[in-house]
Amino acid sequence: MTDSKRLRIAVQKSGRLSDDSIALLKAIGVKLSIRDRLLIAHSTNEKIDLLRVRDDDIPGLVMDGVVDLGFIGENELEEKMLERKASGKPADYEVLRRLDYGGCRLSIAVPNEMPYAGVSSLEGKRVATTYPFLLERYFIEQNINAKAVMLTGSVEVAPRAGVADAICDLVSTGATLEANGLEEKEVIFRSKAVLIQRKDSELSDEKQALIERLAPRIDGVLLAKE
Ligand code: ATP
Ligand code: ZN
Questions:
Q1: How far is CA 24 from the centre of its chain?
Q2: What is the CATH number of the domain that holds 154?
Q3: From the CA atom positions of the chain, what is the Rg in Å?
Q4: Which region, left, alpha or beta, applies to residue 91 given φ > 0 means left and ψ of -120 to 50 means alpha?
Q5: Which domain holds residue 81?
Q6: For the chain, how many structural domains are there in total?
Q7: CA of 202: how far to CAs of 40, 57, 68, in Å?
Q8: Nearest atom within ligand 1 for CA of residue 16
Q9: Considering the entire predicted model, what is its pTM?
Q10: What value does the mean pLDDT take over residues 136-142?
Q11: ipTM value
């Protein structure tokens, strides 16, 4: 169980952000004993509980005030913020620190054989993505009439499967795109991991003091790695 006096931090249970986020907590002196299957992990030396969840859930947990802090990729954070604003849900948060891992870009890629002469080539096309709000915002900015088709997985096979004409997905090396006969054309968002917190006006003095003690240690760890 969690105790409301303990600082609650959401972290991705298993994925690309998990190890680096846990390593950062350990590097700033938070001792943790994590058991693989469990949703909750307690710190043995600080008043901190970890909530281990899917990264998709982290922005909402912070914005709804269920947790105090969360480690999340800016791509997921921005997408969820737009989604929540669109449905009238609370979408406030503060970025406590920008971090040095989880770097990637959200890009539009098209099949090698598709003629492409710039964004206007996407006019009237269907683009598969897990980030429909970021993609729609980009289409509006670019004045393009195209359709975002939401897929939660296997986005890169959508063109071959005839589900979409192009895709918009996260890229780091580009190897997955290449393996699927796709070419990266437009970067629409650049992302890194961030540590976010709920609006500080909602935090107790005790929790705020703990955050103020730990945050400078993050700066120390980031600086030492430069
Ligand atoms: P979950 O099961 O938690 O929902 P997921 O499959 O959505 O996991 P991951 O693939 O673990 O998520 O990616 C989590 C985050 O890692 C991404 O949202 C992004 O911020 C970051 N990331 C960094 N590089 C990449 C990459 N090459 N591909 C995908 N995500 C990346
Ligand atoms: Zn996810």
A1: 17
A2: 3.40.190.10
A3: 19
A4: alpha
A5: 7-102+192-225
A6: 2
A7: 22, 20, 9
A8: 11
A9: 0.96
A10: 98
A11: 0.97
